[in-house]
Amino acid sequence: MSRISEATAIAHPNIALAKYWGKKPIPGNYPAVPSLSVTLDGMMTRTVVRFDSSLEVDRVVLNGTEAAQSDRAHLRVVELLDRVRALAGDTRRAFVQSANDFPTASGLASSASGFAALALAAVRAIPGLDASLEQVSDLARQSSASAARSLFDGFVELEPERPARSIAPPEHIDLHILVCVVTEEKKSIGSTSGMQTTALLSPYFDSWLSTAPVIFSSMKEALAARDWEALGELSEKSALAMHACAMAGGIVYVRGISLDLFAAVRGLRASGILAYFTADAGPHVKVLVRDGDVARATDVLSKVPGVLRVLDTRPGKGATVIASSPEATT
C-alpha cells in the first residue's frame, strides 16, 4: 500500500526594477546586493507535487518533457524537495509536473516563478507541515534567489541575508510592464554562471556592489512617494549598470534587438509618452508605462523588427495554492 498526498500551486515571475547581480560568498545562495521587484500578473507557472511512498526516485516533468535523473534541472528540483523532506521528516519521493505559459530559461524569470511554485506546492503537499510564507520563500531562495520574491504580492524587496517581503500592494502605483519577447530560445549562459563570471572577471564588479544599494534605496523612496518618473529613471539606471558590469566581464545577454528596443523607448519619451526600459539576464526588454499609454507604446514596440510579441502585464499577486489533496492510502 502507498501513501499519497499532493498540492498544486501557481506562481508568477517577478521583474527586478532595482537589480541584484552576484551572490554573497557564503552558504545559502544570498544575493550580494538588495533588490526591489514587482510580481507580474500575466505570466504564470503551474506546478503539481505529489508525494508517493511507492516511488523509488523523484520524477520531474517540465513543460511536458520528463527530465533525466542526471539533468541539472532535475537535480535542482530534487535539492529543493530534499530540503522540504528534511523539514517535514518525510522520506517519500515525489512526482513533479510543472509548466510555464511563457518562454523558459530565456531571461523572463522562469526560475523565479518555477521554484516559488515548487516550494509552495511541496510544502503544502505534506500534511501537518505548517510552514509560514516566509519559510517557503527561504526554501525557494536557496534554489533561485529571485524565487524568494515571487511568493509575495506586488512590490517586493529582498536584502542580503534577510527575508523577502512585500513593501507595496499591486495597486500602489499606475504601472503596466510591457514584456517584449524577442526569442523563444533558451539563453546560452545561465544567470548563476553569468554572476560567477562577472564577479571573477569584471573590473566594474566592486563599483556595482557599491552602486546597486544606493539605487535600491532611492527607488524605495520613489515608490513610497509614487514618483513615477524617478521610478522609471532608476529602473533604467539599474539595468544599464548591471549589464555594463556583466559585459565588462565578458557576459553579454542583450542583442541588437534589445538595443533597438532601448532606442524605441527613448523615442516614446521624446514624443511625450513616459516609458522606461529594463532588461534582465536575457535579450527580452520590459517597458514600464502608465495605463493610458499602453496602446500607443504597444503599437510602437511591436513594430520594432525582431519583436515576436508584446505581453501586457501588471503588478499582481504572489504564489498561491489552487488545489490540495489530503494524504490517502492506496
From TrEMBL:
Q: Which residue ranges does the record assign to the Diphosphomevalonate decarboxylase-like N-terminal domain?
A: 11-161
Looking at the record, the residues that make up the Mvd1 C-terminal domain are: 177-304
UniProtKB keywords: ATP-binding, Lipid biosynthesis, Lipid metabolism, Lyase, Nucleotide-binding
What is a single molecular function from GO for this protein?
diphosphomevalonate decarboxylase activity
EC number(s)? 4.1.1.33
The answer to keyword S-adenosyl-L-methionine applying to this record is no
Enzyme class, top EC level, equals: lyase
So what family is this one in? Belongs to the diphosphomevalonate decarboxylase family.
Know the name of this protein? diphosphomevalonate decarboxylase
**From what organism does this protein derive?**
Pendulispora albinea
The gene from which this protein is expressed is: mvaD
